[in-house]
Design brief:
- This protein has 686 residues and is of the alpha+beta class.
- Among the domains are: 154 residues, Gyrase A, domain 2, CATH 3.30.1360.120; 85 residues, Alpha-Beta Plaits (2-Layer Sandwich), CATH 3.30.70; 97 residues, Aminomethyltransferase beta-barrel domains (Elongation Factor Tu (Ef-tu), domain 3), CATH 2.40.30.110.
- It contains 16 helices and 30 strands.
- The strands form 7 sheets. A 6-stranded mixed sheet has the order 21-22-23-20-14-24. Strands 25-28-27-26-29-30 form a 6-stranded antiparallel β-barrel. A 5-stranded antiparallel sheet has the order 6-7-8-5-9.
- Helix 9 packs across helix 14.
- The longest helix is centred in the middle third of the chain and has 15 residues.
- 39% of the residues are buried.
- GO terms for molecular function: dimethylglycine dehydrogenase activity.
- One of its GO terms (cellular component) is mitochondrion.
- One of its GO terms (biological process) is choline metabolic process.
- Belongs to the GcvT family.
């Protein structure tokens, strides 16, 4: 054994006894339990309540929670939802009494052998072990997906198949030699419900009022207590008690087909015990039907990443590059190409496909009132754009969006790819609760987005439009409709790179023509592509925060350094305003700081420990190599008293502590800031 980890609190429990104990506790506190009762239909009422039909009559409920295990899909279908779940055959083997096990004074710890891909524990005086077979050997119960769970299936089991798991049995015998002489008395094969990424789906579902799920638990009973508490807190408080965005049921959408679910479940089951790398990509089931207009044009020129069903370029190939996906804990084949793309944007001009953004149109008589209530920032004027945050009642950051008022009372809201339905659900809930008269349209799949950024961005786009793009005429954070090469676009002067740039929103079918026209027009200026890895390095140097990293439902906007976007003095009583006033009054316990880290061939990614005086005092939230400073950069949360500029800290990467220093942000000034200083006659530092 090269490395082991011992958890003294580990153990096992009988699921049946635990369930009965929880049921007894629930009854004690007034819960009404009816079983066995089949649900035959679900009817949503206009007031958001539900009628649950059963053979024994109708149950009326304020909300329903689907916790139906491998029947979860059937329940979803009753209301027109296709939950991406699939049953996997999981087998485990039980032996008869083994003298050496019987002789033990204390129970064996549960063993997980990642290389042998099995778990093993003591079962009375024998052993029990269960493997996770490879993608090729594992078995799905596909027929349940197409035809439903057979009526009456309950405690039944599948037929076992020892041959399928033989190599794991042999690996277990090698690690635990007493198994070699043991008799197998039982081989159990039963269904485990898998979601495509192995993680469960927990929380309220977008598109259906008061319908909640807790489904897809590949590890079953172990999550029961935690999920019960998490869901009940959320239902009672109106917001999640902590951030579990990875389990958001709305991470999936119409693009998660049955074929995709099956391919992914195979891969996830087979990868149960593999080593996970930073920036990990998994390729089964890709591409989905959700590709941008540029996918076919770009797919052979770059390394694509997967974002909420979309394929998006991470970095682009040039002759001489080592191409493909080469995962590593250290800098790998993308490191120099990303530096090249960084330079491209800083010195010339780059084009990036941003089509995966979530994009919503909001209009109607109450649209201004709605957004004023949902967002902590002011509502932008017609022709303007701003960055706005939706906060929870407790003052945490539920979402970050860019908001543009395109016409009086008509807005375009843009969010990150992974947050599309997560944010849409929150907005829809706000509309229902407040009774606002608005229409919301999700434009995500119909609309393409191109980002053009760098010193020559204006020069190139100006060749293609009669609209005046000069700084005086088209200011930073303005938006307008115009034609570029005769293609209708909504242009916003904004760029996550922090350089001079525009985001061009257009019909997806126009993407290729628009991209080609811009590339053609920029030949003289040396235009080229860039991907999301370079974008991340650029935004970090500018000190831009990212939702899901620097801010989420575990952070408030003040500790995240977002005061500029939060208008506590605006008249509207926006969600979270009162909580935020109290947080401000009490003072902050921690702050987001900006660090340089002296590393060697490794860069922070986020969620690494930050040390001070031999103690862990915080964690990084994201990081990257800075190609301008030629060293690592990171954002991190640390106690307020350790947040001053110049403070020395350490960041732990791959088991080693590297020296870090809190620096003044940003490392590189944004283009609008540099222009402002230039106009004042000061020379801006790049």
């Amino acid at each position: 054994v090269l490395a082991g980890l011992y958890n003294p609190g580990d153990g096992h429990i009988d699921p049946y006894s635990l369930t009965m104990a929880l049921a007894a506790g629930a009854r004690k506190y007034g819960a009404q339990l009816n079983y066995p009762v089949q649900v035959t239909n679900l009817n949503s009422q206009s007031d958001g309540t539900w009628e649950v039909e059963t053979p024994l009559g109708i149950i009326r409920a304020k909300r329903i929670v689907n916790t139906a295990g491998f029947w979860a899909r059937e329940i979803g279908k009753m209301i027109g939802l296709q939950h991406p779940l699939i049953p996997v055959h999981h087998q485990y083997v039980v032996t008869s009494t083994i003298p050496e096990v019987k002789a033990l004074k204390t129970e064996l710890p549960v063993i997980r052998d990642l290389e042998g891909s099995y778990y093993l524990r003591q079962e009375r005086d024998g052993l029990l072990f269960g493997p996770y077979e490879s993608e090729e050997k594992m078995k799905l119960q596909d027929s349940w997906v197409t035809n439903g769970v057979p009526p009456g299936f309950g405690k039944e089991l599948f037929e076992s198949d020892l041959d399928r798991i033989m190599e794991h049995v042999e690996a277990a015998m090698e690690m635990v030699p007493v198994l070699k002489n043991a008799d197998i008395v039982n081989t159990i094969a039963g269904p485990i419900t898998y979601s495509p990424d192995i993680l469960p789906m927990v929380g309220p579902h977008q598109g259906v009022r008061n319908y909640w799920v807790a489904v897809g638990f590949g590890y079953g009973i172990i999550h029961a207590g935690g999920i019960g508490k998490y869901l009940s807190d959320w239902i009672l408080e109106g917001e999640p008690p902590f951030d579990l965005i990875e389990l958001d049921p709305n991470r999936y959408g119409k693009w998660t087909t049955t074929e995709y679910t099956a391919a992914k479940a195979r891969e996830s089951y087979g990868f149960n015990n593999i080593v996970g790398y930073p920036k990990e990509e998994r390729f089964a089931g890709r591409p989905t039907e959700r590709t941008s207009g540029l996918y076919d044009l770009l797919k052979s020129k770059c390394s694509m990443g997967f974002h909420a069903g979309w394929e998006q370029p991470h970095w682009f190939y040039k002759p001489g590059d080592e191409t493909g996906y080469k995962p590593s804990f250290r800098r790998t084949n993308w490191f120099d190409p990303v530096g090249r793309e960084y330079k491209q944007v800083m010195e010339k001009v780059g084009v990036i496909d941003l089509s995966p953004f979530g994009k919503f149109k909001v209009k109607g008589t109450d649209s201004v009132k709605l957004l004023d209530h949902l967002f902590a920032n002011v509502v932008p004027k017609v022709g303007s754009t701003n960055i706005s945050h939706m906060l929870t009642p407790r003052g945490k950051v539920y979402a970050e969006l860019t908001v543009s008022q395109l016409y009086p009372g008509e807005f375009m809201l843009v969010t990150g790819s992974g947050s599309e339905l997560h944010d849409l659900r929150w907005i829809e809930e706000g509309v229902t609760k407040g009774g606002y008269k608005v229409e919301i349209e999700n434009m995500t799949d119909e609309m393409g987005v191109l980002g053009v950024a760098g010193p020559y961005a204006r020069q190139i786009l100006q060749k293609l439009t009669s609209e005046d793009l000069s700084d005086g005429s088209f200011k930073f954070l303005q938006s307008r409709h115009l034609k570029i090469s005769d293609i209708a676009v909504t242009a916003i002067r904004i760029s996550y790179t922090g350089e001079l740039g525009w985001e061009l929103y257009h019909r997806k079918e126009d993407s290729v023509a628009l991209y080609s026209a811009i590339m053609e027009a920029g030949q003289k200026e040396g235009i080229d592509n860039f991907g999301t890895y370079a974008l991340n390095a650029l935004r970090l140097e500018k000190g831009f925060r990212a939702w899901g990293a620097e801010m989420n439902c575990d952070t408030n906007p003040l500790e995240a350094g977002l005061e500029y976007f939060v208008k506590l003095n605006k008249p509207a009583d926006f969600t979270g305003k009162q909580a935020l006033k109290q947080i401000k009054e009490k003072g902050l316990k921690r702050r987001l700081v900006y660090l340089t880290v002296q590393t060697d061939n490794v860069d922070p990614e986020g969620n690494e420990s930050v040390w001070h005086n031999g103690k862990v005092i915080g964690n990084t939230t994201s990081g990257s190599f800075s190609y301008s400073a030629q060293q690592s950069l990171a954002f991190a949360y640390v106690p307020t008293e350790l947040s001053k500029v110049g403070q020395k800290l350490e960041v732990e990467l791959l088991g080693k502590n590297y020296p870090a220093t809190v620096i003044q942000e940003p490392l590189v000034l944004t283009e609008p800031m540099r222009m402002r200083l230039q106009r004042k006659g000061e020379s801006p530092k790049l």
